[in-house]
From TrEMBL:
Key words of the record: Signal
Keyword Metal-binding recorded: no
Keyword Nuclease: no
Location within or outside the cell: Secreted
This protein's name: Polysaccharide deacetylase
Residues annotated as domain NodB homology: 76-298
Transmembrane segments: none
GO BP terms: carbohydrate metabolic process
Amino acid sequence: MTFTSKLLTPGLRSMGISWVIRHTLQRKKTTILMFHRPESQFFDKAITALKRRYNIIPLSTYFESIKSKEVKLPERALVLTFDDGWAENFGIFPILKKHHVPVTIFLISGIVNTMHHPWFYKVKDRAFKKELKEMSDSTRLAALKRLGFEENQIFEERIMLNKEEIQSMVESGLVEFGAHTLTHPILPRCSDSKAAKEIQQSKESTEALTHAPCKLLSFPNGEYSERDIRICKKAGFEAALTLDTGFNTGNTDHFRLKRLSAPDNGTISELLVKASGAWAYFKVFSGQQQRVRRHSGL
Ligand SMILES: [Zn+2]
């Protein structure tokens, strides 16, 4: 947890903001959370805390409720998603079974079930990682090559889920899988042909891994352009998840579903503030304030 979030989350919680949001803004909407590779102990406690405050539903139920009036969503509906497909996700599978909690995992489908590593795993420096995300795709790959990283490199350590783990999660009926591109580029920085390959082929390779239709995609880093949405539609995806802040209703654009980033460890207070969206809205608001200050020369 950063210093600012340490300082702010207990404050925001003690002010009851997350309670108020749950019972007003979130009450009739679907909140979607994004985890990556949560620690087992934290995740066990997190699920207990979330189940007491929200109704956890599969993402598919949200879509069914839009298609059919017969399917009614509970109040404070919550969907849990995981991006990338880390091997640790199989480590928390017993916790999902214990709590009987449905989730969706989005796979970097060219990297799971291999001994490759995602490019951002190589880069530990946060500021440099941010810089890399701003570069054009080819410049990013050239910069990574200078660091000694290539996408087809074979490592000794397997850090992503393998096919057997994915299969046993599919068979449980608790885990649904979606695509998260082949290699996790920042799509808006890619050429048309690279973006099309990353989106189309990740659908096919996710289907080969799960033996099930792949209808959903989550955008790497939550970044997308109109072109990327067009490619998703053409490739046959039915929905895409972003990191745009907010909650979802029956009217939310299926290719711009809103999600909130959840922590993989830390305190339950921090998790609850982030699950309520208060944290993300605070960040958006303070970002806007900073921009206003910059533009006004303050
Ligand atoms: Zn990702």
